[in-house]
Amino acid sequence: MTGATGGLGRAIAGALHDRGASLLLTGRKTGVLEDMKSELSERVEVLAADLRSAEELSALTGRASAVDVLVANAGHPGTGRLDRLDRDEIDEVIDVNLRAPIQLTRALLPAMLKRGSGHVVLISSLAGKVANPRSTLYSATKFGLRGFGLALHEELHGTGVGVTTVCPGFIRDAGMFVRSGTKLPPGMGTSSPEEVARAVIRGIESNKREIDVAPLTMRSGVRIFTVAPSVGSALSRALGAGKIAASIAEGHRDTR
């Protein structure tokens, strides 16, 4: 699993471990990985890897070649006005959010197909369904990851290898939204890391193509945007989506 060292990654790792899975956990923070290995106590290997590096990504694919399930959870916020992002920042977000999951999937897929079993879980976002200001780059990568997952699910139909794309909304207690320090207006709910973890398990067990993790109100808004983007955009503006997006971008200024 990539992105294991964040709160969302820890919840997913714990849920998989509780189901008896042996884990290979990756992330950039070696100390956190070692702490997770000690906490889970058995059936855990760790490997520090920076997905922005082509060399480290290549080393990771070699180490993980025999895994049964890939959970691509690593993410980069990539927030802010597009005209204020430089070339390197754009490449970094694309590398982490889109290129790495595609390359990892491509590398691990042949062994899964040969065995006739396996699963790929891609952690996208509701930002891969709904577009808001100051998240042009993040949405581009999450729309792309979602499209990759949906197409691959169809491509692998009948092979025994499944693909699930999980699209969380705002997650409390962990992740990019919490780190930004943004406060949501009344009536706009959040979900827990454990809810995302349960969605991952459900996707693996049922080969469900796509799972949204968000309160009903948010999921309803996403459906409106999908069917009628102009109406959905007007509704988002009325609910203050622009201010929320600006707050999230400001909260992640130091991570760009």
Key descriptive features of the protein:
6 strands; Rossmann fold; two-stranded parallel ribbon; 10 helices; alpha/beta; 256 residues
Please tell me about this protein's structure.
The protein is an alpha/beta fold and 256 residues long. The protein has a single domain (7-255), classed as NAD(P)-binding Rossmann-like Domain (Rossmann fold). It has 10 helices and 6 strands; from the N terminus they run αβαβαβαβαβααβααα. The protein has a 4-stranded parallel beta sheet with strand order 3-4-5-6, sandwiched between helices. A two-stranded parallel sheet has the order 1-2. It is globular, with a radius of gyration of 18 Å.
Q: Main β-sheet: number of strands, strand sense, barrel status?
A: 4 strands, parallel
Give the proportion of residues in helices. Answer: 40-55%
**Straight-line distance between termini:** 23 Å
Radius of gyration: 18 Å
* CATH architecture type: 3-Layer(aba) Sandwich
* Order of neighbouring strands in the sheet with most strands: 3-4-5-6
How would you describe the shape?
A: globular
CATH topology name: Rossmann fold
Report the portion of residues in β strands.
5-15%
Which structural class best describes the helix and strand composition? alpha/beta
Short description:
The protein has about 260 residues and is an alpha/beta fold. The protein has ten helices and six strands; from the N terminus they run αβαβαβαβαβααβααα.
